[in-house]
Design goal:
By secondary structure, the chain is mainly α. It has one domain: MetI-like (MetI-like fold, Orthogonal Bundle), CATH 1.10.3720.10. It has 8 helices and no strands.
């Protein structure tokens, strides 16, 4: 038989547990990416002296493969006395990698703010922190939510790279099941279904958040 329903149901709980690891890695990585990306974008604008350094750092991260960055954090950092477990190293690598992309998304949002908003803040003698917190960020972030949502979906599809450092996420678990049973059709197909469902749920949540933010802006 090409497909064995009994075998598929037998391995489903194991894959479901692995899916939890995948979701955790994705959400933690996205939080790091969203927050760190915002920090990079804000510092780049608020402190012009750092613009060139941050630009080089962002391009360096975006121009190197994520897998290389995962290996670097997991295998090279211990040489400098920084030892990370596989899950932590993987999540940090994913978060830092996508923070570089998110920072450019935020920067585009900041660039779309009318110049008059910045000039009014200066005229009112507002601090940089107050300007970004109360004026710029509330206007800049909602329009870029769809782009950030795309990266959340992409993060789900990047988590199989963590199997390279033996993180027992969804894909690694499926490969182990396949190697032990010599049946790959069921585990790999179920992994595809899991990723499809998680991506669709993520996309739906992003659309919901986008609608809520748009309603808030209209009010």
């Amino acid at each position: 038989m090409i497909w064995d329903w009994a075998f598929a149901l037998e391995i489903l709980p194991t894959l479901a547990r692995a899916a939890v690891v995948t979701v955790q890695a994705t959400l933690l990585g996205f939080v790091i990416a969203a927050v760190l990306g915002l920090v990079l974008a804000v510092v780049r604008i608020a402190v012009p002296a750092t613009a060139w350094t941050i630009s080089v750092l962002v391009e360096l991260i975006r121009s190197t493969p994520l897998l290389i960055q995962i290996f670097f954090l997991y295998f090279v950092f211990p040489k400098f006395g920084i030892v990370l477990d596989a899950f932590t190293a993987g999540v940090l690598a994913i978060g830092i990698h996508y923070a570089a992309y998110c920072s450019e998304v935020y920067r585009a949002g900041f660039d779309n703010i009318p110049r008059g908003q910045w000039e009014a803040s200066i005229a009112l003698n507002l601090s940089a922190w107050t300007t970004f917190r109360d004026i710029i960020i509330p206007q800049a972030v909602p329009p870029v939510v769809p782009a950030l949502g795309n990266y959340l979906v992409a993060l789900f599809k990047e988590t199989p790279l963590l199997s390279a450092i033996a993180v027992l996420e969804l894909m690694q678990t499926a490969k182990i099941i396949g190697s032990e049973t010599f049946r790959y059709t069921e585990p790999i197909t179920l992994v595809g279904v899991f990723f499809l469902v998680m991506s669709l749920i993520s996309a739906a949540l992003i659309r919901l958040i986008e609608r809520l933010l748009n309603r808030r802006i209209l009010r």
